[in-house]
Amino acid sequence: MTYTSFTPPRRTLMGPGPSDISSEVLSALSRPVIGHLDPLFVGMMDEVKSLLQYAFQTKNEFTIALSAPGSAGMEACFVNLVEAGDKVIVCRNGVFGDRMIQNVTRIGAQAIIVDSPWGRAVEIDKVEQALIANPDAKFLAFVHAETSTGALSDAQALCKMAQEHKCISIVDAVTSLGGVELKVDDWGIDAIYSGSQKCLSCVPGLSPISFSDKAVEIIKNRKTPVQSWFLDQSLIMSYWSGAGKRSYHHTAPVNSLYALHEALLHLHNEGLENAWARHKLQHDQLAKGLTKLGINFIVPEDERLPQLNAIYIPDTADDAKVRNYLLNHYNLEIGAGLGDFSGKAWRIGLMGYAARNENVALCLTALEDALSQS
Amino acid sequence: MTYTSFTPPRRTLMGPGPSDISSEVLSALSRPVIGHLDPLFVGMMDEVKSLLQYAFQTKNEFTIALSAPGSAGMEACFVNLVEAGDKVIVCRNGVFGDRMIQNVTRIGAQAIIVDSPWGRAVEIDKVEQALIANPDAKFLAFVHAETSTGALSDAQALCKMAQEHKCISIVDAVTSLGGVELKVDDWGIDAIYSGSQKCLSCVPGLSPISFSDKAVEIIKNRKTPVQSWFLDQSLIMSYWSGAGKRSYHHTAPVNSLYALHEALLHLHNEGLENAWARHKLQHDQLAKGLTKLGINFIVPEDERLPQLNAIYIPDTADDAKVRNYLLNHYNLEIGAGLGDFSGKAWRIGLMGYAARNENVALCLTALEDALSQS
């Protein structure tokens, strides 16, 4: 067999991630590799830490980027905090709430499931009932921005409720970080994880995570060892503890971290509030155009994620045919439906660098063309 | 606080990894991101699979690159194959054999430890005694190329012995793949993992792994679920099952996989045997020069890894001072000692693209200079 170098086309990425990446971030990615214990690299990791603290709006000392995708970040939060036999209230309103449940049960812990409809925010009242009915629950876990449905939940209210009921909160911010308001310290979030390839507009493969001091205390006082060696955060923490103190754990993904540093730098320079406003503005533009095309949103307006627009596929349209047309004719990727929404929905991402006038304009024109073909 | 883009210097990487990377691989890394479910990307992943089959010398259908570093590859092998209560014979002759033990015990399985001296190959006789003494052992695990000590073990003999005693073999090939002879099918290896950042000369962050059909059967017939959701290979397999059949699991590290594809392409074009011979040739050159400098190897000649040269720090030399001098004066990284060898050894890597005349020449001259300064 003969092989040749892979030369991908230049796509516009408006699916559920990976999102569009700026040329500056791609350029940072391909800078010369240096050692993961090189003092210069350790210094850069320190900056990644403080830039992540800014992005998460936290002073948490334990704020790092995990050397694996967001789903490993989710697992890291659960396996480090939760022990066999613990009771965890898990809110499920999409694919990723369901994945949380799988994480809880694989630990041998008990998941108390609070179901809310797909395409809606987590129902606060139901969560409160579950908290009252389960006074022995130790954790409350939910997804801030459900990537599978485009629904935004009220993280602030949920975390307040968790505190009132002496529960530790575990929050999935994979799609929310950088795209909508998120304030870890103000909202009292205890454990949070995200992904590099959504609103941060970095390459996929890293998972920013942060633990409050209270969460760190729980990790330090576990009765049993963390079941995963790779994800054991007590080992990871000393790997991220800065110049002179770093102890070897694994080899960090050096180049991906260059890219994350650059992407976070851009977010810092733009300012978080400005980034949130930009996502909202572009979402409004997109929504106006989609409505003109007669396309309906799945999520009610006040629960919608600006950065991930889940829409019903028009009855007259062929799901795969339209997406392939967009891809082949316009090099434009939009996302298919996931789980319950498979074949019924499209997901249009406006994440990070993709939340720009050019992208919205292309998407609306291309979609109109594609729909007229089917 | 003000942040600026991180611009690393151009180092020559002759430590235990990450290793030097060619400009072609760096260039592949920074090609435009496309979706991880894009048909073109799925096609490239198929090529990565067959290129990895070539590198591992296997027809194993289950041959993929895990979206996390080699230590996650290690954990993936253990958590998927081993269940609580199982008996695993683990050979320990350095840091990574010890890490295997930690993986086994975190599963709730029993590790039967066979210790061989640091800086030596695994002692075959001792392993055979352990196999005889533990007829109920299900697995034999060992490190082919110990990165912490520079010792090469006889994987062929060990795997043959495992088969004779009806044990499944689990082999750490993090530093061996691409650098020394390794034949998964001929040697009857059941589960094997490696890292992208050693002799493959790709960026760090990926772990090539391969399971024999026998190992896959064990995974399929587990009595208990795999404790890790992220590393559950029954889920991963359908993610890597090619066009039309792919089911969503996580977002693959798209750009790192471009780089791995390119790095494997280079290995394929050079030819495995040629790559092995090149590592040996450069090692001989380096060894000759080191001997001239009066420097002694830790590992006896016939157990030495060509790609990782562990040497005693001369009595007259200051460990940190010499390494810092090399780094600051020559932009040359060599590795410190690890574990038992901390402060006693240096590790000079000649991995992948770093196994070149230029590197050996620079290293010898620079080291001579550095030693004369202390």
TrEMBL record, chains A, B:
SUPFAM superfamilies: PLP-dependent transferases. The keyword DNA-binding does not apply. Pfam families: Aminotran_5. Substrate binds at residue 347. The modification N6-(pyridoxal phosphate)lysine is found at residue 198. GO terms for biological process: glycine biosynthetic process, by transamination of glyoxylate. Residues 42-337 form the Aminotransferase class V domain. It comes from the Bacteria. The keyword Lipid metabolism does not apply. Keywords: Aminotransferase, Pyridoxal phosphate, Transferase. GO terms for molecular function: alanine-glyoxylate transaminase activity; L-serine-pyruvate transaminase activity. This is Alanine-glyoxylate aminotransferase apoenzyme. Signal peptide: none annotated. It comes from Pseudoalteromonas denitrificans DSM 6059. Belongs to the class-V pyridoxal-phosphate-dependent aminotransferase family. Its cofactor is pyridoxal 5'-phosphate.
